[in-house]
Amino acid sequence: MPKPKALLFDCDNTLVLSEDLAFEGGAALVNRLLAQHGVRNAPVFTGKQLMTEYVGQNFRVLLANLQKEYGFSLSPAEVDTLVASELDNLVQRIETPGELKPCVGVHAALERVVAKTPEYTLAVVSSSALSRVNASLKATSLEPYFADRVYSAATSLPVPTSKPDPAIYKFALDKLGVKPHEAVATEDSRSGTTSAVAAGIPTIGYLGPYEGDERDEMARVLTDAGARVLMLEWSGFERALEELAALG
107: exposed, middle or buried (C-beta count within 10 Å: 0-12, 13-18, 19+)? Predict the structure, then answer.
């Protein structure tokens, strides 16, 4: 494949280690919600359980899937209130000094890429709300790499959606003025990889947040979802780009 013009990155657990924070708070909210609606056939979710089932989805889509799976209903106003509450609580935690960490090695990897190939355009393409993504980038000092090139399926689109819908990747490509084959995406989840691949973008699957048997399982999941190259750590990003280019 030709040298890409744009490098597109998921945010949560790809650039920053935010998913544990998000799903811990989300689990507490979800458990209260299920109890309030008398749902008896659902587990008492831990953050880890909730993340295993719903990683890569924003909270609005997670709520929609919970209603389908456990047979209860929320009004649009209730959904809006819950989404706002989850987001406000999470952003407060992200903004607390020391709470959010960047993924290991991401700063060094992006710095090397920008130094060697300054013509690359870097952008963030996320399912999460723009306020969450921007707070995450600011808290981890990643803002300068992306400027205003931050796109949210929950906020940027005329109709909010979430990965695996490819709409946010198509939106980002349009905003950046590049074609799918002129970009490379980096994703850590099934839904994110599916989204990028469905938009026609060659995709690197990032395994850094996973450990042990879970890493082996996610290697299979991301490959099945269409990731063409797998990356264990950010130190291997340039090598992953080279491997992707060699595949043609």
Answer: middle
Round the average pLDDT of the chain to a whole number and report it.
94
Residue 121: beta bridge partners?
6
| Percent above pLDDT 70 for the chain | 100
Nearest to 123 by CA among 48, 177, 81: 177
Phi/psi for 114 (5° steps) reads: -65, -40
Who contacts 150 (Cβ-Cβ below 8 Å, separation ≥6)? 123, 124, 126, 130, 133, 134, 137
In this predicted model, what pLDDT tens digit does every residue of 118-173 receive, in sequence order? 999 999 999 999 999 999 999 999 999 999 999 999 999 999 999 999 999 999 99
Domain boundaries, the chain: 6-18+100-247, 19-94
What are the φ/ψ torsions at residue 96 (nearest 5 degrees)? -75, 120
Alpha carbons 156 and 44: distance in angstroms, whole number: 33
Buried b (16+ CB within 10 A) or exposed e, 173-198: beebebebebbbbbbbbbbbbbbbbb
**Do residues 220 and 205 touch, judged by C-beta distance below 8 A?**
no
pTM of the model: 0.88
Q: CA 210 to CA 30: how far, in whole Å?
A: 24
What is the per-residue pLDDT for 139?
97
**What Rg, from alpha-carbon coordinates, does the chain have?**
18
The domain covering 6-18+100-247 belongs, at the CATH homologous superfamily level, to: HAD superfamily/HAD-like (3.40.50.1000)
Instruction: For residue 104, count CB atoms less than 10 angstroms from its CB and return exposed for 0-12, middle for 13-18, buried for 19 or more.
Output: middle
